[in-house]
Structures are given as structure tokens and as C-alpha cells.
Amino acid sequence: MPKDTTNCRILSPEYESLEREKLESLQGKRLHDTVKHVYENVPMYKERMDALGVTPDDIKTIDDITKLPFTDKPDLRDHFPDGLFAVPRKEIVRVQGSSGTTGKPIVSGYTQNDIDVWTEMVARALAAAGCTDEDTIQITYGYGLFTGGLGVHQGASKLGATVVPMSSGNTQRQIMMLKELGATMMCCTPSYATLIGETIREMGIDPSELKLKSGCFGAEPWTAEMRNNLEGLLDFNAFDIYGLTEIGGPGVAFECTEKCGMHINEDHVIAEIINPETGEHMPDSTPGELVFTTITKTGQPMIRYRTHDICTITKEKCACGRTTARMGRITGRSDDMIIVRGVNVFPSQIESVIVQIEGVAPHYMLVVGRENSSDTLEVQIELKEDMLSDTVSDIENLRNKISEQIKSVVGVSAKVTIVPPKTLPRFEGKAKRVIDNRKL
Ligand code: AMP
Ligand code: ZN
To answer: Does 220 sit in the ligand 1 pocket, CB within 6 Å?
Structure first.
């Protein structure tokens, strides 16, 4: 542990360290109330439960959760924007959304209760990383529909910390502010934190000239090696924090000083690990797909929401004194979504661009990498045979056109490489169109 962790603490021991039996009984009660609320207020849930012959009265304990239907991203798209709101619009005080996909994004509506719940979850995460009212916290997550900026902001304010709401980008300015205001904590994506750390070193600044002691980093997958590297660059403590818009944003789970998994805020969510093929529960510590049910949200509760994130969960008690279950690092996804520079990218979006462009065949590969701590995306596309006689400048024009289209439809810049006909792999079973060299 590179820095002082004396301020790291359990913010709400009455929940975070509650005996598991009592915690699970609380979860069962809250689950029943949530199911009743959505059954009475959201037609989609009523229809699905009716089809399965399940009523809210059948849901009394957490074991009953398996009687309930799953939900998934397409449900949110199909009911965009407010078809899954469980309260009248006037009770919704905020809408947040997920990065990436243009067209129909994923949005979530929050009541004041939901904002308070989310704020508490983030405050617990920040407190676990040592945040108190003595701290100055530079928030380098983006502010906007994305939950990172505002989420951490609320949590830090609840703890009385001095917030510097920088949002992301403009690395030189970030560093100037870190130095001048003497931030003791910083929060952003791990890749952006690494870039800031590397830039600080390149500028010849020694981390001892800064006051940074810790930070919470998430919104994208990262490895233990990346953490070691980041902690070395900035000589501080880097903690993992996990969340997703649909469930409430960052703070759904967070690391304690033991750094052996992220504690799930189980008084607010029920986490399950399922076999993505069969939907059945996996044993403790066995990898599978993470599924969440919110049990305190009122605006847009989610029942058995399939995150498609692959990880393990353990309910073994942690040395820190918390009794909540811990999830391991996200090691992959059960669908084909990739996260490039924080933007969710589906290969099908790129495909939809390619098939509309004359001159290229619908065969493509996406190669994701990481250079200078930033994600790179290369899109390899096959030229059609009848275009082989085209001049270099024709092909260059084609390349530029595809690149612009991808940027406008998907929202990320990609390097487009046009390859000769019939040179990309063909697939007999499921196509594997993504090569991820980031070693996550
Ligand atoms: P969004 O709702 O756009 O913020 O994206 C949520 C997704 O980001 C999650 O489903 C995960 O795939 C990913 N994510 C968030 N936090 C982490 C983390 N700490 N480690 C790995 N992946 C994360
Ligand atoms: Zn712990």
C-alpha cells in the first residue's frame, strides 16, 4: 500500500457490516416492495410476470428472485425514453444516459430518492478510499449524461470534500490545477489517469510536488498491472469503482483498502452471477454474467438486469470488516460490446455503416489496442473485387468517407484500413470480429 490509508473508513457500518442473515432478510423485503412497485406501475414488468404466472406476493425472500424474468439493454431501447419509468414524470428529477450508441441511447430516470441512494453509494466508495471533509477532489470524469462526473461530484459533496469539477480533457490544465489547488484525490477512468500520470512525469514533475493520496477509477475494464503502473506514476492509492447507468452509475461496487474485489452495495442492489447461456446461478467465485436488481430505486427500478459483464462474486467476509459480497475485476463481456475510450461500441453499428458504402465488401475486423494510455480502434475492411483497378486517390477517398461515417454514427474515431478482397477471415460458426489487444 503506497500511501497513508488512515482515513479510509466504513461510512455506513449499519449496512456495510450488517450480519449477512439480516442483510439478506432486508434484501428480501426490499425486493418484494420493488417488485410490487414495478408490477403496479410498469406495463412491461406486469406483462412479463403475468406470462410467467408470478405475482408480487410470490416474491418474499431473495431466493424467490429466480422466479422473475430477466431484463436486458434492448428492453431499455424498446421503451425509450420513459416507458420503464415507474412514477409520474413530475417525480423524476434527473435523467442520465449511457455513452456510445447514437440513435436510441440508454437512459435512466431518477427520483430524488434515487439521487440520494446513488449519492450514498458513491460516498461509501470515496470514504473507503479515504475521502473526508479535509480533502480536495479533482473530478476528471466527464460531466453530462454520463454518470461519472455528476455521480462522483454528489458523493464527494455529501462527505464535505472540496470538489474541483474539471470534467475530462485538457490534460495540461488538469495538471496545473492538480498542482495549484493541491488536490488530495482524483477520479476518472484508469486510462485517463494513466495519461495524466505519464504527462506529469514527462513534464519533469515529481509526484511528491503534488498532494495526491488516492483516487477511485472505473467506467472501463483495467488490470492489476495497470493499477500498479498508475500507482507508481503518481505515488498514490488507486481504487477500482464500478457502476452502470441502468443501475445507478458509479458506486454500485467499490474497493476497500484490502483491494481484493469490489464491495457491492447490497442494501441497494441484489447481485447474481449466472451462466449466460442457461440463465442459471453459478457457484460462489465461479465466473459468469453479472445481473443486478435494484431494491431501493423508485424512478426506474431494474429487475434482473443482465449487464453482460463477466466476473466472479464471493460472499466471504472481507478483512476490512464489511460483510457485503465482493465482485472481482470485469474480465470480459458476454455480448460483443467493446468500450473504446469510454464509448460503448457494438460491432453491429460499424457493420451498419459498412454495408451502406459502395466499393467495400461486408467483411470487416475491429482491432482494439492501447497506445500512450489511450485506446485505439482500427477497422479493417475488404475492398470489392471490381474496385481493384481504382486509383490510390479513389481508395483514399473511400477510406475517408468510411472514417467520417463511423465517427458520426458510432461516435469514436477509427483508423480505417482497406485490405485486398478475400483476405479477412471467414467464419463458420459465430463470427469473431473483434481482436482486443489491450490484454484486459
Ligand atoms: P456506462 O453505463 O456507459 O457508464 O457503462 C457501464 C459499463 O462500463 C459497465 O457495464 C462495464 O462494462 C463498464 N465498467 C464500469 N465500471 C467498470 C470497472 N470498474 N471495471 C470494468 N468495467 C467497468
Ligand atoms: Zn473489504
So the answer is: yes
Q: Which ligand 1 atom is the nearest neighbour of the CA of 190?
A: 19
Q: Provide the 10 A C-beta neighbour count for residue 353.
A: 22
* Ligand with minimal distance to 190 CA: 1
- Give me 79's grid cell: 421503451
Identify the helix (H) or strand (E) that includes residue 309.
Answer: strand 305-311
- Phi, psi (rounded to 5 degrees) for 381: -135, 140
State the ligand closest to the CA atom of 320.
Answer: 2
Distance from Cα 122 to the centre of ligand 1, integer Å: 15
Return the C-alpha cell found at 277. 447461456
Separation of first and last alpha carbons in the chain:
23
Ligand nearest to the CA of 324: 2
| Closest protein CA for atom 3 of ligand 1 | 98
Please return the burial class of 414, using the count of CB atoms within 10 Å of its CB with bins 0-12, 13-18 and 19+: buried
The per-residue pLDDT string of the chain (440 residues; one tens digit each, 9 = 90 and over) reads: 556 788 999 999 999 999 999 999 999 999 999 999 999 999 999 999 999 999 999 999 999 999 999 999 999 989 999 999 999 999 999 999 985 444 567 899 999 999 999 999 999 999 999 999 999 999 999 999 999 999 999 999 999 999 999 999 899 999 999 999 999 999 999 888 988 998 999 999 999 999 999 999 998 888 888 899 899 999 999 999 999 999 999 999 999 999 999 999 999 999 999 999 899 999 999 999 999 999 999 999 999 999 999 999 999 999 999 999 999 998 878 887 888 988 888 887 888 788 788 888 878 899 999 988 889 999 999 998 888 777 888 889 999 999 999 998 888 899 999 999 989 887 765 567 889 998 76
Mutation to probe ligand 1, out of 96, 330, 375, 436 (largest number of atoms < 8 A from CB)? 330
Look over the chain and give the mean of its residue pLDDT values, rounded to a whole number: 93
C-beta of 342 in contact with ligand 1 (< 6 A): no
96 lines ligand 1 (CB under 6 A): no
Q: How far is the CA of 39 from the centre of ligand 1 (A)?
A: 28
Q: How far apart are CA 81 and CA 282, in angstroms?
A: 33
Cα 254-257-262 angle, rounded to 5 deg: 25
Atom of ligand 1 nearest to the CA of 240: 19
Q: Is 147 a pocket residue for ligand 1 (Cβ < 6 Å)?
A: yes
Cis peptide before 207 (omega within 30 of 0): no
Residue nearest to atom 23 of ligand 1 (CA): 220
